[in-house]
Amino acid sequence: MHTDTPRYGAGAVPAIRVNNLTKSFDDFVAVDGISFTIESGEIFGLLGPNGAGKTTTISMLSTMLTPTSGTATVNGHDIVTDEDGVRKSIGIVFQDQSLDEELTAYENMDFHGRLYRIPGEVRRKRIDELLTLVGLEDRKDDLVKTYSGGMRRRLEIARGLLHEPKVLFLDEPTLGLDPQTRNHLWEYIEQLNNEKGITIILTTHYMEEADRLCDRVAIIDHGTIVALDTAENLKSSIGGDVVTIASPNPDAVINLLAAPWVSGIEEHDGSVTVRLQDADRHIPGIVTAIHQNGIDITSLSVRKPTLEDVFLHYTGRTIREETGSRKAMQMFRWAGRR
Ligand SMILES: Nc1ncnc2c1ncn2[C@@H]1O[C@H](COP(=O)(O)OP(=O)(O)OP(=O)(O)O)[C@@H](O)[C@H]1O
Ligand SMILES: [Mg+2]
């Protein structure tokens, strides 16, 4: 996430502007009137469970699907009336792998470069530069079928950047990768955003990914955006940090701490849970007050809320439950087809 003075600002054309965008498949509404603006230079996340409408949104913005209603522009180009303008300014990495396994990494890149009519000399130079950027220069002449999942993902990202897009769409960039590979990819994505100033819009159902990478996160559920802000603001919007105090006398703790600056307080199994903003600043005062009132406590811990808490707050469900059951259903269907 870049933190220097914004490249974006007043007067600049937003990278993406979405207004009441809707997509229906027959009478099923997959994306239901979403609106948002992404400034140039942002890393923007669409976070939501399986079936939320993330891929459908990205597909409309990249002109692969025609919206049922609503409008959107990418780099100032209308997604319906100026498809070419949109296509020239974007790169896409699909959720499903789209590399040619029987070609080398270099050949996959070269093929893509020819499609975009990038002249030979420039093409060769950029391919080398990008394969170096994603750490694949040593393996560029190996067939893709010998690559690991993480290497394939990095190659797809490099390929998506070959025609120097201003906006890069990444649909579930780290799906199914192990934590270490995921971390590496996050670093590449940050580097791209920092060094090349590319606007990145990514979809994910990994809370940690949205939290770690994105300047702003839109939480999408059943085709609508239920919350949109920085991860930090989303987390504070649900009532702040979580402080847990264990005590033989929880009632006394509650009587002492129930104050206007506390956004929630409850007892469970001898532990008192307090929600409040900026807990770190309040802890010394809380501890002093507890001691001054002669109340015993056995432990005190502070936990920052996660985006999982945020998702739960806005949708009443956990993202994992949903993901698990849908994935199981998909596997079941897949098995049935064989
Ligand atoms: N071509 C289609 N025809 C009918 N229904 C579709 C089509 N494409 C998507 N859908 C439905 O629209 C909803 C949103 O799908 P979408 O692929 O956008 O979800 P997603 O958020 O990307 O989910 P995932 O995390 O599984 O990738 C789902 O219920 C899906 O079944
Ligand atoms: Mg998807």
UniProtKB/TrEMBL annotation:
Q: Which GO terms describe its molecular function?
A: ATP binding
Q: Which family does it belong to?
A: Belongs to the ABC transporter superfamily. Drug exporter-1 (DrugE1) (TC 3.A.1.105) family.
List locations, semicolon-separated.
Answer: Cell membrane
What protein is this chain from? ABC transporter ATP-binding protein
| Ranges of residues in domain ABC transporter | 16-247
What Pfam families is this protein classified in? ABC_tran (PF00005), DrrA1-3_C (PF13732)
Q: Which organism is it from?
A: Methanoculleus chikugoensis
**UniProt KW keywords:** ATP-binding, Nucleotide-binding, Transport
Question: How does it sit in the bilayer?
Answer: Peripheral membrane protein
Q: Which domain of life is it from?
A: Archaea
Supply the source organism's classification.
Archaea, Methanobacteriati, Methanobacteriota, Stenosarchaea group, Methanomicrobia
